[in-house]
Amino acid sequence: MIRRDGALLTDLYQLTMLQAYHDRGMNGEAVFEFFVRALPAGRNFLLAAGLEQVVEYLEALAFTPEELEWLAGCGRFGRGFVEAAAGLRFTGEVDAMPEGTVFFADEPILRVRAPLMEAQLAETRIINLLQYQSLIASKAARCVLAAPGRLLVDFGLRRAHGAEAGLLAARASYLAGFGGTSAVAAGALWGIPLYGTMAHSFVQAHETETAAFEDFARSQPRNCVLLIDTYDTEAAAARVVALARRLREDGIAVAAVRIDSGDLAAHARKVRAILDAGGFPGIRVFASGNLDEYRLRELVAAGAPIEGFGVGTRMNTSADHPYLDCAYKLQEYRGQPRRKRSEGKATWPGAKQVYRAVEGAGFAGDVLACAGEVREGEPLLAPVMRAGRRISPLPMLEQARERAADQLARLPEALRLLDPALPYPVRVSEGLHALAAHVDERIARTRD
Hints:
By secondary structure, the protein is of the alpha/beta class. Among the domains are: 12-136 and 321-347 and 380-423, nicotinate phosphoribosyltransferase (Alpha-Beta Barrel); 196-288, TIM Barrel. It has 17 helices and 19 strands. The strands form 4 sheets. The protein has a 7-stranded antiparallel beta sheet. It has a 6-stranded parallel beta sheet with strand order 7-6-11-10-9-8. It has a 4-stranded mixed beta sheet with strand order 16-14-15-19. Helix 7 (163-176) links the parallel strand 6 (151-154) and strand 7 (180-181). The radius of gyration is 26 Å and the shape is elongated.
C-alpha cells in the first residue's frame, strides 16, 4: 500500500539526495536541528508543539513493498538504492524541547542525530509537523492571553486546509489553553473536550424558531446551547426565556445561547439583559464569527458579557501569519561541525543546547550554546529517542497543556501582550561564537 503519510510523503530532492549518498557510500552520523529563523512580525514568542507526531512518524518510518515498487518503476532510482531503501529504518537519537515550551528565534526545538540517509529522509515530514502545530499553538496561545478566564473552543475544522490540519489544529489549540474543540475525531483520539451547538440550517428546517429550540433541547437535554441569530437575535432571546420556563418543569436547563453574527458586543448586552430580566442569569452567552486574538481583546476590553468564544478560521489558518520561517539544517557530519553561510540564512554550527535563566518566578533570558557547554540555567532540549525508539512515554496532552500554561505565565508581562515588545534576550555563547569562527576558517581553507 502507498500511504498518504508514509515514507513517500517527502520532497523529491530528499530521495534524489539519498540516491547520491548511496552511490557515494555517504551515510555517516549527521546532526540536524529544527529551528525558526525569525519570529513573525508582531509575535513576541512561539510555543513548541508537534513532537508526539514526529516521534510516531520516526518510529514507523519504513517503505512498504508497494512504495518500493513505485520507486523502482518511476525511472529515477537505481536498483541498488531501492534494495537498500527496503531496510531503511530510523535508528537514531532525538532530543527536543517538551511540547508546550516557549521558544524564540534561532533556538532549536528538536535535534536529530542519526545516519545521514535516515536524518535526511525525515526532513520534510519533521518540518511539516513541527511548523504547523507550533504555528497554531502560538496563535491559540495569543487568543488565550487575550481572553483570560473565558472558555475558548476550536471551531475551525471545516475551514482548515485539509483533514489532518483540522485535527492537529484542535490538538495544538487545546495544548495552548483552549477549552475544547468541535472536531469529534480530536475528542476520540486525544480526549479533548467536545463542544457544539446547532447550525442555522437546523432552525431553518423547522417551521418556527421556538419549535427548533425545543426539539434540540429535548434531544440534547444535557447539552442545550441554542443558536439565536438566524432571524432576529433579541427576539430569539425572548423566545428562549419563554421556552426555558417550560423546559424547567421537565428538568431541562438551557445552558447557553450562541450569537454568530452582527455586533457581538451590542447583541450580547441586549441578550444578557433579556435573559436576566426573564429570570435566567445562569444561561451563558457564547459568541463566534471570524474571531482572533485582536477581536477577542476588543470584546473583553469593551466589557461584552460573553462567557465563551468559538474561534475557527483565523486561528486554524493563522490568518495574519500563515507560516513560520523555519528550517531543518545539517549542523554536524562525521563529527565535524557544519555551517550554512547563505546571505540572510546563515546558521550556527554544531549540535546545540538552549539554557534558560529564571529570576523569581519568571524567565530572564536564554543562552544558545554548544551542546557540550555547561551553562547556568535550565537546559531545554531533553532526550526523547535513542536507537530509534522513545526512551520513555512522552508527556500526555494534558501535561503538555499544563506546561504551556506555566510557560506563558512565566513570560515577561510585555511579551504576553499582543502588541510588539522589546525582544526576549537570547544570547549566543562565547563557545558557539568560537566554533563558528573555527568553521569559517576551515571553509575558507577548503573551499574550491
